[in-house]
Each structure stands twice: as C-alpha cells, then as structure tokens.
Write a structure and sequence with these properties.
- Four copies of one chain form a homotetramer.
- By secondary structure, chain A is α/β, with parallel strands linked by helices.
- Chain A is built from 14 helices and eight strands.
- At the A-B interface, helix 9, helix 10, helix 11, helix 12 and helix 13 of A face strand 8, helix 9, helix 10, helix 11 and helix 12 of B.
C-alpha cells in the first residue's frame, strides 16, 4: 500500500521500518527532518511537509507525540486533511485524547475519508520486533483492509468497537492499569525493603504465583533494581497520558482516585527534574518518600 | 505425621481434609465444634480444647482468623504453647501481624519448639484442590521436614527467608497487590462503562495482552459483572489484612497511599452494610461513586 | 466613571447594581439579555453586543463564568478588545485561569490598554452588601485609579503584586483553602455523628476556640445541617475552579493531593446529579460514604 | 484541692505549676523523676510511685503521653486505680484513645470513683499562660466541682457531653482539623511560591479576609517561613493522635481520606528522620515534593 507515515519518534521509527521491510511504499514526514532521513536509505521517500506526505497516500498513519502535534499536521497549519484523498484512511496510532479522536472522526467523515483509531501497547523493543498489541476501532470494513498493516506491526489486534474513539478510551485505561501496577509494586517493594527483605525474592514469588503477567516482570525488574532503563517511554509522555485519562474521566463523571495518586507521582517526579527518565521512575518517588532513595 | 490442626474456617477445613486424605493423623480443634465434627467422619480426632489438640502433636498447624484468635489458642486462655512438645513445630498458616509472628518465633524458641510461618495465597477452591501457593519462612531444616505437608496443600512453595515473619511480610504485600489490582480494574471499568463501552471486551483485551495473570482474570470477571460471588474471602477479613499491612508499614515508616485508598474503600463498604460480601466488592464502591450502582 | 460591565450572573448583577448606586455610568452586557434588562430600570444602558458595551468605556469590568466566556467576549467572536479605547482599563474580576490572565495581560499591553486582575472572595450576599474581599494585582497607578470602584464593591482590597495574574493565583489558592476547610469539616462531622455526638456542639466548640474564622461558621452551619442552602456558588463552578487550580499547579510542578481529593468529591457529586447544588455540598458526599446520607 | 498530678511533659509541667500557683496542694509523679523535682521547689510533693501519688488525692489529673503510659499508671504495673479513694475524681487530660477512655469510665465506675475526660487544645505557651481551651465531658456534677481547676488551666471550657469519651472524640477531631489546615496551607503555599509570589503577602491576605482564625496565623507563620519552631508538639505525638483518630474512625466506619493523607505526611516525615521536629513540619514534606526543600 501507499502509506504516508507521520511521526518518527522512538516508536514511530521502528514501526515505519517494519512497514518498509514488509514491502509497503512509505512517504515519511517528521518535524525534525533527521529522523526522516534515517529511513531514506531503507527505502522511504521523505516529504518536507505533511501535505506533501499525504498527497499520494491510500493510508495515512500518524504516530505523533500529543494532541497538539496531530492538530498541527491534520488541521492548521499543516492542513494535511485538505489534501488527503477521498476514500483514503487515516489510522491514528499514537495516544491522543478521546475528544480529539471524536473531532478527527467527524472531520474525516465530512470529507469522505475514513478514520480508524488503532492505538498500540508496547515499548520500543516490542515495536522493533513487530510484537505490539494493537487496539483497533472503527468501521469493520476498514479494519479488515488495514489488518495486513496491523499484522506487520503487532502480534495481536483487538477490535474493540465500530466507533474509533473506543480505541483511545481503551488505550488510556490500559496505560492507567500499567501505572497502577507500577504504583502497587513500588509501595510493596518499599514495604519489603524496609523490612530488610530481598525484593528480588519478592518479585520471583509474585511472578511465580498470581502475578504472572509481563507487566509485573518487566516493570518489576526495573523497580526492584531501582533502575529505570532503558528509557522506553519518557516520563512527561506518561504524565500527558495520565492527564488525558483524567480529563476523559471528568467528561463522563468518573472519579479515579488511584489515577490522581499516580498524577501526583508524575508531578513530584517532574518537580525533581526527572523529565528524561522512563515513566516507570515514578516508583522512585515512592522509594524517596520511604527514605530509601539511593544517592540523594 | 501427627498433626494438630486448629482453625477450620472456609480455608482451614479444606486444608485439613487434604491432609487427612494424604494419610496424616489429624487432631482438629475449632471454637465452633460443629466444623470440627464435620471432619470426624473423614478420620480426624476432635479435641475439645487447644491443649488437648496439641498434646500429642509433632506438628501444630494454625489457620485462625486473626491475631486475637491465635493469641487465645497459643497463649491465654488456651495456652497450647505450654503443652506442645519440645521439638514440635508450629506452622502458622493464616494471615497474622508481623508483630505477632515475631512474638511467636521468640516464644517457641524459648521452649525448644520450632516455628515456621507458611502463609497461603489462594481462595477456598484452590485450597480444596490443593493448589494454594505457599510462602514459607523459617529454619531451612524445618521447612525441609514440612515440605511434604506443603506439597499436599499447595501447588508451589516459595521459601522466602530464614526468619519466619518474612512470610507474613510477603503475604501482606501480596494481598495488597491483589487489592491494588481490584482498585485499578474497578476504576478503569467504571471509566470504560461510562464511555458506553463493553467491559467484557475491555477485559478480554487486558487479559489477552499485558495483563495475562490469573488475578486479572479471576477478579476481572467479577468486577465486569458487578457480581462478587462466590464469597471466597469476606470483606471484613480483607479489611483486617489491610490494617495489618498499614500497621506493619507504619512500624518501618513506609507511606502507602494506595493501601490507604483501599482502606477507605473497605471502610465505605462496611458503612454500607457489605460485611457479608466478598472482599473484591470494594470495586462496587468505585462503581457507586461513579453513579453506576445497580439497584441502589 | 464610564464603565462597561459584562457578565451579570448572581455575583455580577449585585456588583453592577452597587456601582450604579454609587453614581457610576454603566453600560451592561449579558448573553442572556433578561438579566441585563433587569438593571435598565436602575439606570444602566443595555448593550446588545460586547463591542457596543465597550465602545465608550473608560473601564471594562468582566465578571464572566469561565475562560471560554471571557475569550468569546474579548477575542473571537465578540472581539471587544478591538473596540476598547487605548488607555482604557480592563478589570477582570471573575475566576479565570492563570494562563488566560497572562494572555489578556499581553493582549491589552500590545494595544496600549491597561489590564488588572481583581478577583473577589465572597458569596452573593457579600456582593450585595458591598462586602467582598478584593484581590487586586497589576500596575500600581491603575490600581490607585480603580480603588474607588473596589471600595464600592468590597470591604477590603488586598494588593498582591504588579503582575496581574498574581491575583488569579491567589484567588485559586484561596478557593482551594475553602474547599479544604469544607472537606475537613465534612470528615470530622461524619466522625462526630457516627460517635453519636452532636455536630452543633462540635461546631460551637470549634468556632469558639481555634477555628474562629467566618469560613468555619458559614460552611460549618450548612455542613452540620447537611443542608447546603442558599445556593451561592454552584457546584460545577466550584469544580471548574478546582480544575483551574490543578492545571496551574501542573504548570509549575506542584503536587496537590488534597486538591485532588476535593476534585474527586466534585466528580462524585456530579455523577450523582448534584449539578444544581451549592459547591459546599461536596460535604454530603463524605456523609454518603460514611453511610450517613439522609433519604438514600 | 488535694490533687495528684501524673505526667509532667512540656504541657503537664506548665499545667501543674499553674495549679500550684492557684493554691492547690499537688503531689506529682513522673517516670523521669527530674521533671518532678523541678516542681518541688515550687511547692509540690514528689511521689515515687503512682500509688503513692494518689494515696491522698481528691482529684487525680493525668497528662501522660499515650495510652500505654496511662495504662501503666492506672492499671498494671502502677495500679493507681486500686489506691484511689472511692468518691475521688480522675480527670484524664491528655489525648488518649476513645477505647481507653471508655475502659477508664467503666473501671472507675465499678470502684465508686468518678471519671472525667477533659482534653485540652493549645500549645505549651498557652498552657503556661493558663489559656488552654478545655473540652470536658462526664457527669455534670463532677464537671461543676472541677470547674475551678479548669478555670486555672484554661481560658474557656466547653462541656460537650455527659459521657466522658465524647471529649476524646472531640479532641481527636479538632487535632485532625489542625492538620487539615496545615496541609491546606502547605499545598497552597507551595503553589504560591512556585508561581514566584510572596507567601507572606498570601498569608496576610488569608488572615485578613476569610481565614482570620488563630490556627491560620500561628501555623501559617511557621509554614511561610518553612521553619517549624518552637517545637511545641513533637511530630511523633501528632502521628500518634492521627492514628488514634483513624482507629476511632474505623471503629464507627467513617472513611477519612484527608486524615489518611496527613497520615502519609507523618510517615514520610518520620522516614526522613524528622522525629524531633514540631508536628507542623509535615508541611515541609509538601514543599519537598514540590521541589522546594531548602538545604536538602
């Protein structure tokens, strides 16, 4: 397929690369052009504006950092939506607000374009390996047509509704559950450490009994080591997603006290200059409060 | 082995039965004698006092509801510790405070008795099936000798330290992580429901991607249905364990805001007369706050 | 002075009336024209657009419900800022975001207009009596010139800085402290009630000892009665201000867990259909959680 | 009156001194005898055991640090309750648990003794000046007879019920409201500071408008200065009272999320070695989290 791929961060670059390898024709655009050029040698065409990127596309994939970036590309000043062909499909794959996803659904429909939200779960290593989990929502026919792309990018696609924003709701909720797990592990590891017991033994016990899921193994390892590397998803982006969640929760009047607690962890981390850390480093704040911080 | 088994609640009865089936000689004691008599036909001797129960025992297993119950049996007025043979081993399997576990360790040592803490993870159905997870701590030699008993009762034994109270610390932390999962699922399900999306689809997505652990499947099913049955672990007992956790956290100066949040869920549930519900029904409180309560 | 007064809600109407009584020449504008007409008989001119309202004004006072309303009047589509004379002063008196206050400061400066933020503390009865507390910030010369207006509207003016947004920061913080007081009183009254003791005796004790401030007497009376009347400040407006606070706190990386707790009270109240209640009715949510709700 | 005064800490010493000055005959007892001897030169008799202290007393006043201290004096091993005359009155003035107050009420009644709870509000300087607020509960006749003592110690007595533990409930609730005020001030001052505004201006505004109560002025001054001196009430004692509150709230099923938040502040402060600080130093934890800590 002829694909315009916009947004080449840690995740997007890996995803675009996999699509090229799978034989798709990609025109890529990124605000920082260097990241686009890195893909040129692998066969991508590099566009110098969003409009140029989508001029020819059957499918537009956006993997942009936040709402503002998506708005700048699709609406003003980028205005790619005006150039995108009638009948083309925009697949919005990054984590954006439920509200913006609704707005995009409406705007594309007015222009006879299709819109899918297909958010992803997984860190850069999963993106590289084509092992993401994909949460797709939108018209079944379009999802069917885009399934080959999802199969390149992910290990499994969950179709969660006919209404595109459903994928955004699910993604925000899943991210929240990851942070809930991080918080739970952080508090319990602090508890175990201050009883002079070994966190690694604790973690082995957890992941060998009721808590066998990858999320406990991956984040648990970083938390037990109090080392949050590699930086797969930056803390300010985790904070952004948490705010999108809380905003979407306010919209439908759902109090989420645990999400608020996590919110405060993010804010505290940012107040301590941790904006380059992985988002799981909010666990370090729990350690700090318990008087366990190393080297501070 | 000659085993005194004291404490025949939902969990204890199933565990005692499995030990009898495995060929061990059991003398059982329970405050409410009816539950003891139910085991008589299966081959248990029924003692009428704690002292009588332990008179002959090589191993004493306690599976009592709370600290007070353990103290009444071992110390005054039951005073079983005075009768227990030198060289016998007390295996404390229910969830008790870290402080009481320390006190027991000391008291048994003084009398030349052995003490293990071997707490269990799992609900009554797992106890019945001999599929509990066992968290054992104490002297390696005693653990080795008691391993055949653990193999009858559980699917896997985690040996977590030489110091018995370690097993109590781990058990309280694991219970906390279950409640953290319940809270996370409750808030995210409320969020999904109020966006008019299907919680069951959400749950399938979770347990098919990053959240594959049993704890998400078991509790997730109850939460998605807003039906907290069967009642495997009563809400006031969950509240009790949460208080033991917070008390043990205070003792070593670890703030646990998520545990406090769960504490308030329990208190709110009790204020609404839910003392016969399963502990996972704290999720219902989250639904109530979001205006989602059915039939209220 | 020739004053354009825009925004005639519960507070604004009383304030405009007092300015008329004091001899000022008012042109008023309100989206719902009926509220403007009510002031016509008292001597106000009624404008049919924001632009018309400010055409002649030396001073523009805005007392509008939220950021959006202010933007619509000053910027598009109302565009009053284009018509306001060079040298005229805009006094923004309602609770708006710190961010919008900064934007207004810049926009007015560019056009050679003056801008003051002069937020108010007090409910409609205080507005009626000219007994508001006024928190003013901006250039000292302009504050000096507008002081006669403040003296009509309030019992006391606090000048809190040369930079207009300071008044917005202070106002949001003061509102937060009111909600903190409400929450504190709500929890402690629930505690007292469930110990079968008399909340009114409790309140007399508080306000007769360390807690002599009006805020304890006014809100305490409503909380002790579990009756939140009269409705001086609607719950959704209180929620809005709480969100402005949290947003301004995020901007400077200050975690405010108590503000988050209050946030959840507002969300819960809205989930239970309390959007017409006074904002102090968040105390009722605390009573509900404690199982104390009347008529539930 | 012949008074036995037991418990000569920062508060108790000042109170005993005032009773001596007012002409009462005091026999004092303190575990650390040096503090008792300090009062000898002012006219007190020094007892070497609790029993000796109460042998002759018409009134026993206890001002002891915690439940354990009261139990050790009244019950085992001190056993003063056995020696106290029939018809004598025990006035329990320190902050103890509601549960222990009930137990004391019963125990004294059985022995034909009287029991009042008369808790106090105020710091050591207020105790020294005889300006405490006294919260008294118990039989009206006994309160009437002890009123002259209260008049020596305090500026005002609030009689809050016939049932002694009512005074303990009120005291715990009042202490909670002080911590709620501290938390509110801490968060709002952090908010103001990080907006580069002056906390002292903020405080003047607060205490000049709606927040005129002493509690805002006293604690506000320390918080704005981020200096928590003099140490009037030690942080671990504040923590103890917070735990008594939460325990008494659990007993009647009242969730108190704000009290939990304060609990975590105390725990965090203790984890950072602040056990010699004034309890208001929990505000410093809020500053730390906002990245505002000086010198750490």
């Amino acid at each position: 397929m002829k694909i315009a791929f916009i947004g080449l961060g840690n995740m997007g670059s890996q995803m675009a690369r996999n699509l090229i390898k799978a034989g798709h024709s990609l025109t890529v655009y990124n605000r920082t052009v260097k990241r686009a050029e890195a893909l040129e040698s692998e066969g991508a065409k590099v566009a110098s504006t969003p409009t140029q990127a989508v001029a020819d596309a059957e499918v537009l994939i956006t993997m942009l950092a936040d709402d503002a970036a998506v708005e700048e590309v699709l609406f003003e000043p980028g205005d790619a939506i005006q150039t995108l062909h009638e009948g083309a499909t925009h697949i919005s794959m990054s984590t954006i607000s439920v509200a913006l996803s609704k707005r995009l659904a409406d705007a594309h429909q007015k222009r006879g374009q299709h819109y899918l939200a297909a958010t992803v779960l997984g860190r850069p290593d999963a993106a590289e390996a084509g092992k993401l989990f994909i949460i797709a929502a939108g018209e079944p026919e379009q999802i069917r047509q885009c399934q080959p792309l999802f199969d390149v990018l992910g290990q499994k696609t969950f179709v969660v509704g006919n209404n595109a924003p459903a994928a955004n709701v699910f993604k925000l909720a899943a991210n929240f559950l990851i942070t809930a797990t991080i918080e739970g592990l952080a508090e319990s590891c602090a508890f175990v450490r201050k009883h002079d017991l070994d966190q690694n033994v604790f973690l082995e016990f957890l992941t060998g009994s009721l808590f066998t899921a990858p999320v406990y193994r991956n984040y648990g390892g970083m938390i037990a080591a109090d080392k949050f590397e590699p930086v797969g998803f930056k803390l300010p982006l985790g904070f952004k997603d948490n705010r999108l969640l809380l905003s979407a929760a306010d919209d439908v009047a759902v109090p989420m006290p645990l999400a608020n607690l996590v919110h405060d962890r993010f804010v505290t981390a940012l107040a301590h200059g941790m904006s380059n850390a992985d988002w799981s480093a909010i666990a370090h704040i729990a350690f700090q409060e318990a008087g366990l911080a190393n080297g501070e």
